[in-house]
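Work Package 4 report. The design task specified in the project plan requires that, given a folded chain encoded as structure tokens, an amino acid be chosen for each position. We show below one input record used in the internal validation round.
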């Protein structure tokens, strides 16, 4: 007789089979802060600086004063350093195919978004990125990862899809990249799955929602409070959230755009010294490589990375 002190052979078998399935599964997230197991990246083989939004626009407009210059070998080196951080953390790295025409598709966060239900294929607004969905679809189909939905109602980009916790998603739009119509379509799909979605208009200078809010632990987000609307701050507080506040200057230079590796480990960037020190004082282990060729070019480590699989919150 099983007195409850140990599993029956049948239960042990079910547990082992479940563990095997979890080990084999390489897609699906219901949060963005637990242990990261698999990540989708790109290869910046054809990267160059072009006019592609307010962040790189500011870089190019001020280059004669700041001396900022694009250095492709340095960009490749910086990207590989980021990859090494992932690999050292035990994260399996997967890659979108490099393409000379789709020369910014390595910002893997934007052409798709991972959900618990499969991949969301996005509809990008920038002319130089409108066909990035091609390499995203190729990757998911080639790896037997189901496609959940494809955005059609308006432009929507993956950086505006922020899963705070199981059952709650922020869906942002600034108009210049994601549009209200596209974001509303995505928010409606989320609601049909039984989750709550909060539609959030944001300032164009931050481009995407993940330039303003990134979760790093249960009920803890990195954010720039000065750039958030009061109603959203109040709503997050009502949900029990606490904030690691990033100054406005660091935030507009992509300071918020970091990645939680799980287990109190953070992939940040050298360009966010105040934030990095604050996180370390809170007990987080912070890796902060120099990613200046990318932050000056419009995206940080979160923009470069699409979480494919994290340990689920149950």
């Amino acid at each position: 007789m099983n007195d409850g002190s140990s599993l029956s052979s049948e239960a042990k078998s079910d547990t082992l089979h479940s563990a095997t399935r979890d080990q084999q599964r390489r897609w699906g997230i219901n949060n963005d802060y637990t242990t990261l197991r698999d990540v989708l990246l790109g290869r910046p083989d054809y990267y160059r600086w072009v006019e592609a939004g307010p962040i790189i626009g500011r870089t190019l407009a001020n280059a004669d004063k700041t001396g900022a210059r694009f250095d492709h070998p340095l960009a490749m080196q910086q990207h590989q350093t980021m990859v090494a951080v992932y690999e050292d953390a035990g994260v399996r790295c997967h890659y979108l195919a490099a393409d000379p025409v789709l020369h910014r598709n390595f910002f893997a966060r934007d052409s798709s978004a991972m959900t618990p239900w499969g991949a969301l294929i996005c509809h990008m607004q920038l002319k130089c990125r409108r066909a990035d969905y091609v390499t995203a679809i190729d990757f998911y189909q080639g790896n037997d990862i189901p496609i959940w939905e494809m955005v059609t109602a308006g432009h929507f980009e993956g950086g505006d899809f922020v899963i705070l916790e199981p059952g709650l998603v922020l869906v942002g739009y600034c108009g210049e990249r994601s549009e209200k119509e596209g974001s509303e379509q995505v928010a409606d799909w989320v609601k049909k799955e039984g989750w709550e979605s909060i539609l959030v208009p944001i300032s164009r200078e931050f481009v995407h929602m993940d330039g303003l809010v990134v979760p790093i632990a249960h009920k803890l987000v990195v954010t720039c409070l000065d750039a958030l609307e009061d109603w959203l701050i109040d709503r997050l507080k009502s949900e029990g959230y606490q904030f690691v506040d990033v100054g406005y200057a660091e935030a507009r230079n992509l300071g918020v755009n970091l990645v939680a590796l799980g287990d109190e480990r953070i992939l940040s960037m050298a360009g966010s010294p105040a934030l990095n020190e604050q996180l370390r004082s809170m007990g987080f282990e912070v890796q902060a490589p120099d990613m200046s060729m990318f932050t000056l070019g419009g995206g940080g480590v979160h923009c470069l990375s699409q979480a494919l699989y994290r340990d689920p919150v149950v």
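The domain at 30-310 is CATH 3.75.10.10 (L-arginine/glycine Amidinotransferase; Chain A). Validation will be extended to a larger panel in the next phase.
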